[in-house]
Design goal:
Two copies of one chain form a homodimer. Chain A is an alpha/beta fold. Chain A has helices spanning 13-33, 50-55, 65-68, 86-95, 105-121, 138-144, 160-172, 176-185, 194-197, 200-213, 233-241, 303-319, 357-367, 398-409; strands at 2-9, 35-43, 59-61, 75-78, 99-102, 126-127, 151-157, 224-225, 244-254, 259-269, 281-288, 292-299, 342-352, 372-376, 386-393, 396-397, 419-423.
Chain lengths: 430, 430
């Protein structure tokens, strides 16, 4: 029987869930898969869960060397997150010939290529199912199944916090600040929500998806990324009227010799399955050339859901132990410059309600070759009171629109920067 | 490098797609997974695709022994379907030490236990991802991932043909016969649609899901199974009014010491994700105790989608080749007697529109302890003209309702057998 001795770094929410879930599933896994997964040692500076972990049969320590350098550890599970010292711990584990399982999306987005190369050099695995879409086994599915159908594009709801916030705003008609505060109070958002609401977390996950779906690790600093923190109740209200829902999307598309990767809020038609994904749920919608579209959804975060993917990774390592399969280090492929691409946009101007304003805006848009599909002004203002003027464009080059909007925003009748949200158009739908 | 020589039995739609998809993906699989998958030989009585298959590098033959007994074949792919001679071919392959991949749900539902035992005795795999929900890698996901979260129940749309028919009926307000005919003309339904429309195909798939999710192979003859052939435009219209959609569901639930397995049309609340799955798409909704709910959807049939799952299975066999993992032969667990369970029902009576009719029906229901939530009679009839009377019950024991309905159907004012459709209630939803 294959026996894997596991060393766990980090006994926080996910780490502790992993220890418990592994203990709960150990006997079943041994029976069904014929492998023994033993949590041998746990390392954390915080000793608050020492007793509970020891009760689960693990030795507790505060020296990470007892895990990454220990002869009796086969698999190192890193669940501390962040770039450093997680990177150094993983590198040390690989250099000592240990397989690694991690949920650290930021680390993989920034240093994945380097770590995968190091793993290959040392003939070790790095597995990271939990790093994208929590409990959904999307990485395994992309790699081992959907790849055979030639993946063409992916639309993901990759961040549960922002989807929770957008869902609350949509269902209750509330503003961003009110909902964020509530989400923070209920533990759905961090005290410092930047990584979530600015789209960084979703963008890191999009980079990992790219590496597996297309074999390309994009430079994380060049991926177009916009958050949800500027979305207002008014934008959401327009969506309801237009039978559309605002979602923070991670979009990946294979083009001729380029990849398109972008993370931003977008209006999605309510008839598309991705629009129906509500709350702290993640979803990944995958189109393939040969085998049609797929949708996968489930919890994207939380202790047990994330830990489940970590357990699966450890099991996969044990099951594949005689046949090492490496993630290819990744080929180079330029990214599409999103600004030069055409799309349909919703723009919300804040303007004085007086004759000639629409003419000036329309004129400036026309100057940049942008034509208008729809104009909506629901309230009446005055020559002193600003109102919202919503303009939906026909297909326009993104940079042209941004430039036109920039110039309009300097005109005396505008109050504040214009809101611009892409309206996502899908080639195919389930 | 691991090399697997594949023998394919059956060069029909799926078989030929498999040959093409394998050829298309061979180089990539070799590069990414380090295994060589070679389609060595194809057997079919029909020689119409002989040249095309030979052009793909495979030898063509009409003698199945050249596959199931051949020394140069490692993996036998069975894609002829049906119970016989598929069973004999697979048994012969296993006895000759060959791993087997099949898409044959009927065969596995009837003889799975026997064939898995034979595979274990001969230290061989049987893999069958394509047998349930076509391209969706649901079997692998259940076994290798979701199991660690303790699967509690599954709701599946497991048959694309019936989902296509129900979707058309719902969207266009058409009757069953009209839509079935169109589906047959467009290749969405077979000339003899019995296996699909009577629910047998979905039921076979539910039995396979049970074996993997719960380790229990139910006796296929004892699983409650009802088709969609009695659903009328009127039933669908009620659903629209009540914000519900009729779906042919495969339902599996783990109970204290029993399993509940049933296949039947049911009303599903439109707010549940499973209600949004339209057309020839399959979906599997899985609840777990520890890790929340999941939804997986994609094409459930068709050459390439089904073949993709076959390719994945062959790859998995090649990757796991040094560590054989057997599907456990399955424990025994009694099935819940659905008739003794409580549920909410929609009933549509066809009755004469005269005083006293409702009193008689309500009286008979009361006799069986069934109380009424809602009564709807939209049209006016007469003492000579029958009209539809819809009664939605509160929770009632299924057998009691059936018995009451049976007695009501004998009353002089009823025209034909009463329609009874369960209204599915979900504990959790994504």
């Amino acid at each position: 029987m294959v026996i894997k001795n596991i060393g766990l770094i980090g006994a926080g929410t996910v780490g502790f869930s992993f220890a418990k879930l592994l203990a709960k599933n150990k006997a079943r896994i041994k029976k069904e898969f014929g492998v023994a997964l033993e949590l041998t040692r746990v390392c954390d500076k915080n000793t608050s869960r020492k007793n509970e972990l020891e009760a689960l049969g693990a030795e507790f320590c505060d020296d990470v060397k007892k895990i990454v350098e220990a002869k009796d550890i086969d698999v190192v599970v890193e669940l501390i997150g962040g770039l450093h010292p997680a990177k150094e711990f993983i590198a040390a584990a690989l250099k000592n010939g240990k397989d690694v399982v991690t949920a650290n999306k930021k680390l993989l987005a920034y240093h994945g290529k380097e770590l995968f190369t190091l793993a290959a050099e040392n003939d070790c695995y790095i597995k990271f199912e939990a790093s994208v879409a929590g409990a959904i086994p999307i990485l395994k599915t992309l790699t081992e199944n959907l790849s055979h159908g030639h993946i063409t594009d992916i639309y993901g709801i990759l961040n549960g916090t922002t989807n929770f916030i957008l869902t609350k705003m949509t269902k209750l008609g509330l503003g961003y600040d009110v909902v964020l505060k509530e989400a923070q109070e209920n533990g759905y958002a961090e005290a410092d929500p930047t990584a979530d609401v600015k789209g960084h977390d979703a963008m890191h996950k999009a980079c990992i998806l790219s590496s597996l779906a297309f074999g390309v690790f994009p430079d994380v600093n060049t991926v177009a990324c916009q958050g949800i923190d500027a979305i207002t109740a008014e934008d959401i209200a327009y969506g309801k009227e237009a039978d559309k829902t605002i979602k923070l999307l991670g979009v990946l598309k294979r083009k001729a010799n380029k990849l398109e990767i972008r993370v931003h809020p977008a209006f999605v038609a309510n008839s598309h399955p991705i629009a129906t994904i509500d709350g702290a749920i993640n979803a990944v919608f995958v189109n393939t050339q040969d085998c049609g579209p797929f949708l996968f959804s489930g919890f994207g975060a939380g202790g047990d859901p994330t830990a489940m993917s970590v357990v699966s990774d450890v099991l996969d390592i044990a099951r594949d132990s005689e046949l090492r399969v490496m993630v290819p280090p990744g080929k180079e492929m330029p990214l599409v410059d999103i600004g030069k691409e055409k799309a349909v946009f919703y723009t919300r101007f804040s303007v004085l309600d007086k004759p000639g304003v629409l003419a000036k805006i329309a004129g400036k848009l026309a100057e940049y070759g942008i034509s208008i599909e729809e104009v909506i002004q629901r309230e009446r203002g005055s020559k002193d009171k600003h109102v919202s003027l919503i303009i939906v464009t026909h297909e326009a080059v993104a940079n042209d629109l941004r430039q036109a909007v920039k110039e309009i925003d300097k005109m005396s009748f505008t109050k504040h920067a214009t809101q611009v949200i892409r309206i996502e158009e899908f080639k195919q739908a389930v």
